Amino acid sequence: MHGALGLLKERRFLPLFATQFLGAFNDNLFKQMMVLFVTYHVLHDRQAEQGFSSIATGISLVPFFLLSALAGQLADSHDKTKIIRIVKTAEIAIMLFGGLGLILARAGHTHIGIAVMLGAVLFLGIHSTFFGPIKYAILPQHLQHDEVLGGTGLVEASTYLAILLGTIAAGWLSIDQALILTFVIAIIGRLIASRVPPAPRQGAELQINYNPITASWRLVSATMHIPRLFLAILAISFFWMIGTVLIVLFPPLIKNALSADPRVYSTLTALFSIGIAIGSVVINTLLNGRTSAKYAPVSVIVMGGLIVAFSLLVRTWPVLPHGDLYGMVEFFTLPRAIPLVLVLMGIAITGGIFVVPLYAFLTTTVTRDQTARTVAANNVVNSGAMVVGALAVTAVSALGMSPENVLFLVAGMCVASAWLAQKLHLACD
Q1: Membrane-spanning regions, if any (predicted)?
Q2: What global pTM score does this model have?
Q3: How many domains does the chain have?
């Protein structure tokens, strides 16, 4: 058995690992660049900033809800590697389109530029929808059974490391530098995708249903009646609902409640991503390669407690007068900065420990010709939960609830996730 890191030496894993890493980096770089530009340079109203973040998040999730069923069918009925190459070619065009929107917005054509950027976010959502089932479903095809958990952990860890680097780049690079980088990375990603080994269809040929509504319904119905998959998908969905709420809250909360500038925002988001990556690798060590939900309930309970601690820290933060923002040095020399960072890292690490084994359940407890559709069914339910999370933030914000109080609701959702994970653990372990 290879250690998880040993897979990075294997051609059956490394090109896929690098391709999805670069894709996640580019996706995050563009989205973060857009959100920071609009939050710090266009909108100057706390509620409007939170509303824009909700809209951008919601738009990126619509394709997952509508097209995941089709993506899963195509991945299970065609060579997954060929689909990867098509998707990576499309990424080059999407980055050019999104760059045009940023240029227009910066030049003063604000409404047109933002509309084009949101269009690019929609296209990136479509891009991710078709790539998402493959990056997990291809693993059982290229890896041994006892390597899948380690491979899944590495994919999760690298995704969040890519988010880390994309976030840092968005905060520190100029718009021109970031635009050039997104285009270059898209080209490199396409070149590396050509090195991914073939992953041909396995099992009987499928009759593809192109109707997004009926296809999604049938896909979810065919998956969710299996108890272990039902519990795993619901637990993952609660996790991503929590994640969506945190994603929506983060930009306005850091700007307004913590009085921090874009570079501080990028650094905190990057540290959060490092934490999830650490948790994704640690859980493989704890479980010694075995797919199990053993640690999921306690990890998400701890996560909820840390979210409450984060809310309390934010409430006592020394806020600057309106319009003034802490820079890097001023922010991280504050007495509360170290506890804040430790709490954020704890939230992220426990989140990684929670979610990675659940994804491994999806790909190791079904036959190989069903893995992509299983992941796609998970994506449909996840995206629905995430849309609910984004809409809920918009609704409670409109009612005047502060981000600090919304965090208490998020902590309550962790309890529901723990209950589902415990039922999965009792049913399958």
Answers
A1: 12-30, 51-71, 83-105, 112-139, 159-192, 229-252, 264-283, 295-317, 337-360, 380-400, 406-426
A2: 0.68
A3: 1
